[in-house]
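Subject: for your reference before the review

Hello V.,

The reviewers asked for a structural picture of the protein, and I figured it would be easier to keep everything in one thread rather than splitting it across files. Below is the amino acid sequence we used in the manuscript, unchanged from the supplementary table.
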Amino acid sequence: MTLGEKITDLRKKRGLSQEELAITLGVSRQAVSKWELGDAMPDTDKVIALADYFDVTTDWLLRDIQPSSPGSETNSIPSVTEMLRGAPMLLNLTIGGNVFGAALMIYDLWQQTYYQIPTILGLFVQIGMCALFLGLCSSIQTQDVSTGRQWRKKYWRCNIYALALMPSFWVSNIALDMLAQRFPVSPLLLLPMTAMVYFLVCLRMHFATRETQ
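And here is what came back from the structure prediction:
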């Protein structure tokens, strides 16, 4: 494809007449017509103006190579800025999902359902929410380590309260069962022990994810 053919093709794609393009470039309509027919070559400054106006490279205009399409960049990895656009909404989604998962497990604990289906569903929901947002953090961290770590900390800081509830209960229950094999232990200790473990885990995560000013 010659330079004239390229100019004609770009002009028609924009829906411009030769006169409209000439006015934009500050030349006569006859000059544009001669460029397109191949009877004359535009000056260097006009080639640059054409490239800027049609958003192509001067290298493509002057050499017979195909322009790369806008979406065919070799680096298809989204930028950190693009990934961060949906991060706040995704964070809110994971908070809601983890709270819902914890609610299912608490319901199962209260109702003592068969096969513990609510607990299993709650665990899958929480695992899915963790994988979803932490996967985003890992993608961000490949390009910007500091930003990735910051959002990872923000995730744990917001979600630990829902995520730590049932594990704290399970750990306390196992610990009481082990103590009961050697000492007389009241089942009434399960609730305060769970609360203590839960408080310690949340406090530990609170200080671990504290943002330095």
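For the response letter, the relevant points are probably these. Confidence is low (pLDDT under 50) at residues 70-75. Residues 157 and 206 are 6 Å apart (CA to CA).

Happy to draft the paragraph if you're swamped.

O.
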